[in-house]
Amino acid sequence: xxxxxxxxxIVERTGIRERHRAGPDDTVASLSLTxxxxxxxKAGVGPLDIGAIVLGTATPDRLLPxxxxxxxxxxxxxxxxxxxxxxxxxxxxxxxxxxxGLIASEQADTVLVVGAEKLTTITDHTDRSTAILxxxxxxxxxxxxxxxxxxxxxxxxxxxDGRLAPLLLRPGGGSSDPISEKVIRERSQFMKMAGRxxxxxxxxxxxxxxxxxxxxxxxxxxxxxxxxPHQANIRIIEATAKHAGMPMSKVMVNVDRYGNTSSASxxxxxxxxxxxxxxxxxxxxxxxxFGAGFTWGAAVVRW
Length: 303
Ligand code: ACO
Prior knowledge:
The chain is an alpha/beta fold. The chain has helices at 7-14, 28-43, 67-75, 91-104, 128-131, 181-186, 195-217, 234-244, 255-258, 265-275, and strands at residues 52-56, 81-85, 110-118, 136-144, 152-160, 168-169, 192-193, 226-229, 284-291, 295-302.
């Protein structure tokens, strides 16, 4: 599909230069498997060590069962409980919060947390206001109880406001409006977004999430070494950095390379930051995201 847009408009208004589209045989579960294997190898754990799989996604492969169960089967993680988290772009941060709870309540010692999406399947490629934004991807992390030391999660914060749902939603194809000729005709199986309104709320909610996570961690903003924001739009990232009082040199940006990959955004950014040597043992990172719901959240991590 061709839409009336230009590379110049897209780069100026969003900062996005390229996006990735999963291959026809890739599923959210198979993308997750690739990410999970890398995370497990780094953490030195095997599939049978995993007590829970918590997978954030807005694009499950099927509506039933969960993509996390498909991933479990692909991995052979037969000792795990597996389920999806539906929290849109902060899905990875919500999944971390759930994983922390599972570990604290001794349901699991080792949790695989995944953020994975095939957003290009729910993007209306005839709608220029959304078609230019979204890409596919997956990222994963292993969470375990820390035995001594001062590394790990210092704080988390999550919040939602369902009154803002009409600003960003996928109206059709669920149980309130099952797939039908009407849904197809109205293209309501695709995401609809009031971009300018979403932008405003994104800036406000990311600011609140940063403040709360920093406060709960008992640190000050200048003790944060690296801000890892949800990669939706460079202008939203810049506004968030400004609010947090952080120079862009302390901000992880890869929206130019991947566009908005929703719940995969933060783990993809973390993986790249680690590869580039920007996350070293002891680095204090502030993760922050917002998305459809509205949902938002943040976490402070000492790497
Ligand atoms: N190419 C050219 N022109 C365009 C395009 C495009 N791709 N898209 C919109 N326009 C036009 C509009 O029609 C409008 O024209 P008009 O002034 O003649 O009416 C003009 O550009 C400005 O449109 P705005 O929507 O005001 O543009 P804005 O600067 O707000 O940028 C954007 C739009 C990029 C969508 C921005 O609002 C944004 O990033 N919002 C946040 C979106 C977001 O992050 N969503 C993800 C949430 S995460 C999740 O849960 C999936």
